[in-house]
Design brief:
Blueprint: H1 4-13, H2 25-45, E1 51-52, E2 125-132, E3 136-142, E4 153-158, E5 166-168, E6 184-187, E7 193-196, E8 200-203, E9 211-212, E10 219-226, E11 229-237, E12 248-257, E13 264-265, E14 268-269, E15 289-293, E16 303-307, E17 312-317, E18 323-328, E19 345-350, E20 353-359, E21 378-383, E22 390-393, E23 401-405, E24 412-416, E25 419-423, E26 430-431, E27 433-434, E28 443-448, E29 454-458, E30 465-469, E31 475-480
Parallel strand pairs: 14-18, 27-31
Antiparallel strand pairs: 1-15, 2-3, 3-4, 4-5, 6-7, 7-8, 8-9, 10-11, 11-12, 12-13, 15-16, 16-17, 17-18, 19-20, 20-21, 21-22, 23-24, 24-25, 25-26, 28-29, 29-30, 30-31
Amino acid sequence: MTGPRDEIDDWLSSEVEPLAPPPGTFDRVHRRARRRKLNQALFAAAGAVVVIASATLAPTLGAGLLTGGGGAPRPAAAGSASARSPSPAPTVSKPGAAASSASPPLLSTGLSTTTSGANAPAHFRPTSITMIGVAVGAVIGQAGPPCATSYCTSLAGTSTYGASWYGVSAPRTGAPDSSKGVSQLRFLNLNDGWAYGPALQETSDGGRSWTPVPTGGLRVTGLEAAGSRAFVLLAGCRGTGAGYTARCSTFSLYSAAADSATLQKVTLVIPASLRPAAMSTGSQGSSASLVIRGNTANVQAGTGYLLAPSGDILSGSVGGGAWKYLGQAPCQPGAAAPSGAPLGAQLTVSGSMLLLNCVSGGSSGGGGVSGSGSSQPKQLWESADGIKWSKASQPPATGTATSLASGSAGQAVLATTAGIDYSPAGATWQQAAITGGTPAGGFSYVGMTSDTHGVALPVDASLGEVFVTTDGGQTWTASPVSG
């Protein structure tokens, strides 16, 4: 594809006296060229494992916790966003980014490795975080008032691993309400991302504009991205209001290519004796989860794993094709947290191994998260192939488990309603030190982007904070999103 810089070179070489270009042309060309260079640098650096954790984050690579972030800040109202027209039909990929210029944005800013120059929205309440590349990431949540539109859904980005935040355009939709709204976020790279839970929207320009993706009336309870696609868990749920993940009886797996508003169903090869029980839960309701193990040599050769409501493990290539049945996990996922993450079993990737935290009692069969003083027996299991499982260790019983993460082989970090526990090699456990003390209610999510760096979200989103570690999960420090 010939870029804008080629046209300018031709124009400059012409002997005809040209008219002045429209205002902002050179700035746009410069930004596009810089974005191409940044993406090239990003993918060159992305040689490590792409770990996509459940609940709110699919972290990829991470380096040091940097400081700074230039650009003169200017106010950014909460809920600011630009919107493109939806695709004419659910099966047609959406138009290119050029079509989005028809709707002037209230705040047209996307992710970058510097800053948008806009302040993060005030009173930000983060409910999900995604990290991409080295130190770059974003959070989604409700912010304000005041809000720039009738919705307060907002995004904030960081290029300093949480040391500072700036405004990013958000999809024009509200908080989760039965089948409407979004609360979770995943970005595949600097351009392609998805906001979901329970509805689904996608962006191909770093968040500057968003397009709704039809889901056929089903609700998105999980989404992970790797290679050039996103894998989406759709569920038939009857939960109302913010409890959109409650009473989900059927689950199915779909995928969507980056820069597309088309969902394609993934074929699940399950033994006849297990169908349809593997992906349905009857009237009781349950949950499911996804994780993806990256491939350092070929990102399209990564492997995805699905923990079905029945406790069955299925697996497939992120490059395409059917997902096949592997075997039975040691436990079932149980009911879902508000984010859609299972409360009965937390699955993650640790190097070449799968790690699964199984709980008994507590909230594994309920619909909520127990308090910080609760006691919940836990057992960490490991598997090299998703077929055979062995006991690895026993995490502390204090608190209800909410999220499991790992940044290197053997490492395990577990978020609970009582704090964060970590195990350097998966055998013995210690309680992490939280600067300023563990927030009330503990943590809803933890994710490691390397063996040293990770992020966590408190259960209480009104705190407006993201917690960051730079020492493998031993200590965590709060980073206020709104400054």
